[in-house]
Design a protein that fits this description.
Order of helices and strands: HHHHHHHHHHHHHHHH
Number of helices: 16
Helix content: 55-70%
Shape: globular
Distance between the termini: 36 Å
Oligomer: single chain
Largest sheet: none
Radius of gyration: 19 Å
Length: 291
Amino acid sequence: MTPDPRLRAARRCHNVLNPFHSTHYFSPDLGREMAAVGVEDRDAAYFAVRAAAMGAVGAGTVTAAFYNFKHELVARHVPAVWQAASPEDVLAARARAADTTLRRLIGEEALASKEMAEAAELALRATEACTRHARPLYAAHADLPVPEQAHMAYWHATTLLREHRGDGHLAALLGAGLDPVEALVSHVATGKGMSPKFLLATRGWTREEYDAAAGRLRARGLLTADEDLTLTEEGARLRSGIETLTDELDRAPYDHLGSAGVARLTELATGFIGTALGNGAFPPDLIGKAA
């Protein structure tokens, strides 16, 4: 079957929108702003900033919505983190960190440009077609007000689009029969996922649990028998099918924007994230198969 060019274009657009949102997760500004409101632990800060839009939720809600974090790690910090800082305080700290991070990585001139205003308008228009049902992280963030400054409005829109796609992606993973660790390991095996070094440092799983998941994938015929994380043909088809289903579940905002709008937003977003990458937005060894 020939891939739908509209879905391919939508995925390309997502691939340059998502990292714009994600820059603050790797920024020292986030740690500083969260420490200022009483949250100094890195894991607690991540769970708090991403979950705060849902309110002072418990560990079960966070584990369910985030999918690939070990519940025991989540429960170590949630709901205790809300005793240190309210969701409202966390959301304000996150916005300050995102603003400072973008000013440093992209520059004041670009943030104040007509291109940034255009990108914000296009991205926000795309979010008009997003849907709340069965999408808890998107729905929670969709209830937040749109910031007035263009670069923060664009960042807010990229957050909505990222979480909308992410919620659908989790449904695709569940349908494919991949548990949280298997989802991580199989993504690493595509060569496009976070490296095991970062996964083991941030998701709460042990090396033994990670290796056991690889063993289960080999038993299903999804990884080759050698010790390298290499997908079999069946494994590659499974991962490709997951991405295709994710594309289908996420097509509404990009269909709403139209082909010309998607192309223009992709062009603008590519320029902005290219500048951020050039200024060291992410660790150089973030992606890859190396442990």
